[in-house]
Specification:
The complex is a heterodimer. By secondary structure, chain A is α+β, with helices and mostly antiparallel strands. Chain A is about 35% helix and about 10% strand. Chain A is elongated and about 100 Å long. The C terminus of chain A is likely disordered. The radius of gyration of chain B is 19 Å and the shape is elongated. The N and C termini of chain B lie far apart (about 50 Å). The chains are: A alpha+beta, B mainly alpha.
Chain lengths: ~350, ~200
């Protein structure tokens, strides 16, 4: 064996099998200079270990830890512990707080609508065209969005109707949403059992769609459906663009370039790439939350399916249409009697400004 | 696969985020990018463990600036802690190399928190009695893959086999690189003026 054999280093680092170690030890005994070499290697290894372990090891920042925990909670499919862990972080950012309330609202809006209509309007007499059978795999689209020529619902995920709901009786969903800037969320008359079943597994960052000044863009009626980012092409698994990445938002009013850091203030890459939003209404100065919040949500629920809920204002209509595998559409007009009153926190807080 | 409870992820974060960020910093060179990379690795872990993503995709081979290649990310075994550790290092490494390739022409400005105090001038460097500084400077003289295996071995206590899994090098190659790397460090020490070498390092001569 050469005295310069990597096995001597492997011996120092306890990487040899016992028989190989025994051979090295015999060599060391027979050759004192080899013994000295091994001792020096051991000393260098100790120094390296001490030095490198003492080197600074920065942690992830809280925002990034949150992003990971969110991903875990979402992947956890309604794991209640995950939800609890997530719902009450020590200090929530504004968007976390708003995200939870709004997600809950969106969930309940959908849940209540489906429930109310399946109970009150169900029955063969009022079936919508293209009846959807319970439990079948379907694609869900938002009728209003498609009607506006968005054409942006191509990424609509599959939907499996919860087994406790017979969608064949559902003919419409309608929600009136009246908001103020100050009061906490309050939802009345939502059946607990359905609420629980539709409880999202974690709050998600709200889908703020906008540019440097989201409110101004929205007021201007921008088409914010076309969002591109270099990050998406490079690392599709990145949920948040890196600080040096550039995010490009293309709107009807032109192109706005943001740094990853700026973009992170509003949304994450994966999320906003899923967002497709069109808004035909008008806003005015000093609009309440309900008047400015146009959020097209794409959420995963406890049962692992995806649903879209579009919140609009002042009279928010959640148009839902199921499309079966055979492309048969079931569309439901808005029912006048399904109403949920939601009072929310303001969506745009001062820190979101330019 | 059973999705990971958030509590488990917290445990993994607590245990591995710092070593991984430190490791990624050694590749990408700045803290925020390293954090990007590590966040990505954890999110990928979550998605694979929950079945949202496949876990055995071969990564694109590197056209790299530091002659390292991304390696195939082996199927994840969530029941084996050591395997999770090696897997996280592998994914972190791959993401970091992707990052280096993408931003090889960009020299990022350091974030305030990663700025060191006053950097010593050349004379001060020579006179420095800080063994750690000395050693880290010596490490810079090694090849990237020698440096990498040394960090993985001594900073993270990984075995030859685990380093092999992470880097895609053979176990024999890992042993060779460590052997050569240690030898070169000792040679560099010998070549330095004895009175300039910190006492702690002289013991390795």
């Amino acid at each position: 064996m050469s005295h310069d054999d990597p096995k001597f280093t492997a011996y120092v680092l306890n990487e040899l099998h016992s028989n190989e170690s025994a051979e090295i030890e015999r060599t060391i005994l027979e050759h004192p200079h080899v013994n000295a070499e091994v001792a020096e290697t051991r000393e260098m290894a100790d120094i390296l270990r001490d030095t490198l372990k003492a080197e600074a090891a920065p942690a992830l920042c809280e925002r990034r830890r949150d992003a990971v925990l969110r991903a875990a909670a979402i992947a956890g499919k309604a794991s209640q512990p995950a939800l609890e862990n997530f719902a009450a972080p020590a200090e929530q950012a504004w968007w976390q707080r708003v995200g939870f309330w709004q997600l809950t609202a969106a969930c309940l809006v959908f849940g209540f609508g489906v429930y109310a209509l399946s109970v009150n309007l169900g029955g063969s007499a009022q079936k919508a065209p293209g009846v959807v059978q319970t439990g079948t795999e379907q694609k869900v689209t938002i009728g209003n969005l498609a009607d506006e020529g968005g054409g942006n619902v191509d990424s609509a995920p599959s939907l499996k109707v919860p087994s406790n709901v017979d969608p064949s009786g559902v003919t419409s969903v309608a929600v009136d949403l009246n908001g103020t800037k100050t009061n906490p969320l309050h939802i009345a008359s939502v059946p607990n059992d359905l609420t629980n079943k539709l409880q999202p597994i974690a709050p998600k960052r709200p889908q703020v769609v906008g540019t440097n000044d989201p409110l101004a863009q929205m007021r201007a009626g921008a088409d914010i459906g076309k969002v591109q980012t270099k990050a998406a092409a490079h690392s599709p698994n990145t949920s948040v663009p890196g600080p040096h990445e550039q995010v490009v938002l293309r709107t009807d009013n032109g192109e706005v370039k943001l740094t990853g850091e700026e973009a992170n203030r509003y949304f994450s890459v994966r999320e906003y790439l899923d967002v497709r939003l069109r808004e035909a209404g008008s806003l005015h100065e000093g609009a309440s939350y309900a008047e400015v919040a146009r959020i097209f949500r794409h959420e995963s629920y406890a049962d692992g399916v995806h649903r879209f809920v579009m919140i609009r204002c002042p009279s928010i209509k959640v148009g839902v249409s199921f499309v079966t595998k055979d492309n048969a559409e079931a569309e439901w007009p808005i029912a006048p009697d399904a109403k949920i009153r939601i009072i929310t926190k303001p969506y745009f807080e001062p820190e979101l400004g330019n | 696969m059973t999705p990971p409870p958030a509590t488990d992820i917290r445990g993994l974060l607590d245990r591995y985020e710092r070593p991984l960020v430190r490791y990624a910093m050694g590749i990408v060179g700045d803290l925020e990018s390293a954090r990007d990379v590590v966040q990505d690795a954890f999110i990928r872990y979550v998605r694979i463990i929950s079945g949202e993503e496949g876990g055995d995709d071969a990564m694109q081979p590197a056209r790299s600036t530091n002659d390292a290649e991304t390696v195939s990310e082996a199927a994840l075994d969530p029941s084996d802690t050591r395997h999770i550790e090696a897997w996280l290092f592998t994914v972190t490494r791959n993401r970091a190399l992707d990052h280096v390739r993408k931003y090889s022409r960009i020299i990022p400005m350091p974030m305030p928190e990663e700025r060191m105090s006053e950097e010593p001038g050349p004379d001060e460097e020579l006179a420095s009695s800080d063994a750690a500084d000395w050693l880290l400077k010596l490490l810079d003289a090694l090849t990237p893959n020698q440096r990498e295996v040394i960090r993985l071995k001594f900073q993270n206590d990984l075995s030859y086999k685990e380093i092999s899994d992470i880097t895609g090098l053979t176990v024999t190659n890992v042993g060779f690189l460590l052997h050569i790397g240690l030898k070169k460090l000792r040679t560099l020490l010998r070549e330095a003026p004895l009175d300039a070498i910190p006492t702690r390092l002289r013991t390795a001569l």
